[in-house]
Amino acid sequence: MFSPHHWFEALAQSPLGHYTQTSRWAFAVIEMVHLIALAILGGSVLFLDLRLLGVVLRDESAAAISRDLGRVLLLSLSVMVLSGIGLLSEEAMKCYYSPAFRCKMALLAAAVVFYFTVHRRTAQRADTRTVSLSQRAVAVISLLLWLGVGVAGRAIGLL
Amino acid sequence: MAQPLLQHLCQVLYDSPFGTSIRESDNAFSLIESVHVLSITLLVGSISVLDLRILGLILREIPVVRIARAVLPLTWAGFGVMFASGFLLFWAEAAKSYLNPAFRVKVVLLLLVGLNPLIFHTTVYRRVTEWEREHRSPWRARAAACASLLLWSSVIVAGRAIAYF
Q: Which ipTM did the prediction report?
């Protein structure tokens, strides 16, 4: 199996890479899509976790909210991953060596795994009468992980 | 040299010690900008939950008013943070922003995005109890929700474009 270093090089030299590196507007437009998807993703995560914390819509089924907002989350996440690859193709090697980028990828992996395992299960089991301690913990961890992804992503451009 | 009043005010803000200190500091501008960008999720993310409900795409079993009551405090909090951070960013770069076409477009879009809910709340929303349980809201409500999503996306696009002019 080729190393990550190889894949990053391959992306930088791919047709997509050449396009984003030479075009005047490509990076900006892809970044705008990335930001719009970020707003939707952040909104669904926030709303979902506030429900788990019992702060909003406490009388409504957390399972139903998780099902609907989960769909929004996955759709916006897909857009973010695709646009993210587009952004990466413009500066692949710089990101490869960037501590902020590596941090962001690690947090993203953690957030996604956490979502598909603990988070979904907890939301499906939650009832409307009580907010358990484990529910609160899951919500807080989720919010911190996703916030971390956002902050690390911001740091890529600054460090 | 005669300057339009508005441009003169922007120049005064730009030259002020406060504006200059933000602009020239190593970290302040980046930090304020980071807060501004990440708070998009609080402001736009929350209102899009309501918009998607009105469009009948999510949470159809929950009446619209209940969703609105859950969402709007978050949206207002987000607006507060965005306005404060945005104003500080503007203050630091006021003279340049005045001349920036992307910034001007963004201001116009922000006025429109404020006008949209104003119209919505004083017209079709007045009778919301008649339609809040429907899976399919009245077309005027759906138009407002669509406009909201499009306008906010445009604000984000214009905001990002500022750095390119």
A: 0.93
